[in-house]
UniProtKB/TrEMBL annotation:
UniProt xrefs under Gene3D superfamilies: Dihydrodipicolinate Reductase, domain 2, NAD(P)-binding Rossmann-like Domain
Name assigned to this protein: WGS project CCBQ000000000 data, contig 00009
GO biological process entries: NADPH regeneration
Location of the Gfo/Idh/MocA-like oxidoreductase C-terminal domain: 145-342
Pfam families membership: GFO_IDH_MocA, GFO_IDH_MocA_C
Domain Gfo/Idh/MocA-like oxidoreductase N-terminal: 5-125
Native source species: Kluyveromyces dobzhanskii CBS 2104
Record-level Gene Ontology MF annotations: nucleotide binding; oxidoreductase activity
């Protein structure tokens, strides 16, 4: 068995502490945190103690961390307007890098990140954990039974949580990334939608800001047409409402049946399949439950990154910048369409 990859962590905030570090501890044969850097050094010092990183390996700046030959790969969890600059430095230092989502703050910067990733043999990954959900291959297998697919409705909605620790981060309160919470959480939903059904070609949308704490629009209701097929659908997203269940509901309609995927916090994902060409035949019905990983695919995304790095094969990366660009580009199209009173907008390509 090969030695674990030595990880340099950039940004030791909430998600580093709550999800990435426990993932490294769980996958300790694959990853070992060895160095870190954070804007506020005292937080990096505290993180290092928890992570078992030597005090001398808490760096005061990114360049010193990159100069450390013992660091094999970078794990970046900073406000996303720093993703491209950080990835560029990492690639220049010869180190593969995984960066948290959304890919960047806007499409211009995201495009540069795609070009960077496509100009190097080093794996560059965007940590879009919903691409790695256990329910994805199961839903795909069911979808293959109801085709051709004609339409879908996707609804991911939830109540506002003003005291959530994420709400307290200043970079979310005053977002430099387009769409604020719409892109922060929305790219997860768009990752799941597009990995199951294909890329979005055009959309017509209305977005709106319900909560001043969101800093910008926080809900979107849209009509969608896929790029490489005639599939049409609706996409609704927002966690800014009054009391309601937090859930994801995707119903896909085919000419030979339907598949309904329901994700509710704390419960297994359910996937219901109904097969039958009309309402007048005997319908075959089946519901399966799929248990997601505790960190909702973060574990699998790191196993995927490890495989790409150790095999020196960037084509193994699932969450490539090109894939992640598409999710942010859909959010950009929502915002543009809404600004133009719901006019249909083509989703930009990298
Ligand atoms: N996949 C998911 O489900 C998921 C969930 C949550 C977050 N994330 C992603 O993880 C990343 C971090 O989010 P978080 O929730 O952990 O936020 P966070 O706690 O605010 O962490 C961000 C880190 O970046 C640092 N930072 C803030 N502003 C900076 C600046 N101007 N220059 C340099 N560093 C700066 C902060 O340093 P200070 O200590 O100085 O503030 C902090 O350590 C984001 O990309 C976010 O989208 C992903």
């Amino acid at each position: 068995m090969s030695a674990p990859l030595n990880v340099g962590i950039v940004g030791t905030g909430i998600f580093a502490r709550n999800k990435h570090l426990p993932t490294f501890q769980q996958e300790s044969d694959k990853f070992r945190p060895v160095a870190c850097f954070n804007r506020t050094k005292s937080k990096a010092d505290a993180f290092a103690v928890t992570a078992g990183i030597e005090a001398s390996k808490v760096y005061a700046d990114l360049d010193h961390l990159l100069d450390d030959d013992n660091v094999d790969v970078l794990d970046v969890m900073v406000p996303v307007q720093f993703n491209y600059a950080t990835a560029k430095k990492s690639v220049e230092a010869g180190k593969p890098v995984i960066l948290e989502k959304p890919i960047e703050a806007n499409l211009e910067q995201a495009r540069k990140l795609v070009q960077l990733a496509e100009s190097t043999e080093l794996p560059v990954a965007i940590a879009e954990n919903w691409l790695h959900l256990e329910s994805v291959p199961v839903a795909r297998e069911k979808l293959a039974k109801i085709g051709p697919i004609a339409a879908f409705t996707y609804n991911s909605t939830g109540p506002f949580h003003p005291s959530s620790e994420y709400m307290a981060t200043t970079w979310r309160q005053n977002p430099e990334h387009i769409g604020g919470f719409l892109s922060d959480g929305g790219v997860h939903q768009l990752a799941l939608l597009t990995t199951l059904l294909g890329d979005v070609g055009s959309i017509a949308a209305f977005s709106s800001q319900l909560r001043k704490q969101s800093g910008t629009d926080d809900i979107v209701f849209s009509s969608v047409k896929l790029r490489d097929s005639d599939v049409i659908g609706t996409f609704t997203y927002g966690s800014a409402f009054g009391a309601t269940e937090k859930s994801v509901f995707l119903k896909v309609f085919g000419l030979n049946g339907s598949v309904t995927v329901t994700i509710s916090s704390g419960k297994p994902t359910t996937i219901k399949t109904m097969i039958g060409a009309t309402g007048e035949v005997e319908v075959q019905e089946e519901t399966v439950e799929v248990k997601e990983q505790p960190f909702f695919g973060v574990e699998a995304e790191f196993v995927n990154f490890h495989e790409a790095v150790t095999k020196k094969d960037k084509s193994l990366v699932k969450g490539t910048p090109r894939v992640a660009f598409h999710h942010l580009a859909i959010v950009a199209a929502f915002l543009e369409s809404s600004k133009k009173n719901g006019t249909a907008i083509n989703v930009e390509q990298p």
